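Protein record
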Amino acid sequence: MSTKANSKTKDFTDRFIQNIKPTGKRFQYTDGKCPGLKARVSPSGRITFAAMLRNKAGKYTTYTIGTYPEVSLKSARATANELRKEVQLLGLEKPSAPSVAKFDDITLRELVVEVQPVFAKNRKSWRSRGGADSSAYTRNTIERVFQPLLDRPVETLTAEDFAVVANAYKPVRPLKGKTTANGQVSRALSYLSPVLDWAANRGRKFGKIGAGRPKRLNVAELRRIHDPASDDPTIRGKRERVLNAEEIAAIVPLLQYPAPEKIRRRNILPKNDFGPAAMRFLLLTLARREEVANSRWQDIDFLNGVWVKPEVKATSGESRSQRLPLSQAALDLLKSLPGHRPHGGAIQARQLFGH
């Protein structure tokens, strides 16, 4: 993981390493007795030994040694000394020290944290809903369902590992009468699958050079895991009721921007709470939720009153564009939002319902 870490030099002892406390951020210490040996501490507190060495060309390279206490301090120093001899004295590009880890030690938790700002650029569900240090809904769902796997190296996890945890998941909070958490598990699988594809540089979206993670990881593929929601009648079944005319009439006046005090979400600043306005637009257009969430100002033709959807799934499974005429009520709603500029001055790539 390419995180720039704070480094402090200490004479390593077992007591010192055992007393290192996690801070929620990644940092590292440098051993004062063994040149190049680092103790890297993950946000969750997992400690990994690594050797950072400069080769004959003057370039620094980091070699992962192993996780403490599985790899002892004595063994880590011996491995670091062997690596330093092979890299700096013998000039080997690929050292043969036997204890060097064969996989990247990045954990599932760290991978999800790493991918959040990448996916947030184009996916609203991956954007923080609170302050700068808060996590997104998708990340929360993944971490809740796959909690037992979060602090394990992601390259050691198999599809079977994910399947076992998914099938054994029990909800933390009551599900309002439901007897299963299949919907939650289904969402977690659908959110995590593209994360692993991005990490592995695979699939139609991430298979092209430069589209996936800069350093490719050998991670599992989740497409073969059974989706428990696919045969759950409580999820796919018929709706028991819909809102009647009186209920809709009571709700619609509240669906505006800024959000009225009585319904605004407390974990979001008022200026950032576009939820009620987005719901009103959804009712006015009968569009899918994801279409509304991903819509951009550049997609709205105010002159002709048309919403140009760049990608809509057809019944054949293929994608196509679509032009949807907008009612005057829908156009007036968009014009009331802060992103609208009467003379074409809006930031065109910005989302309709967001900053």
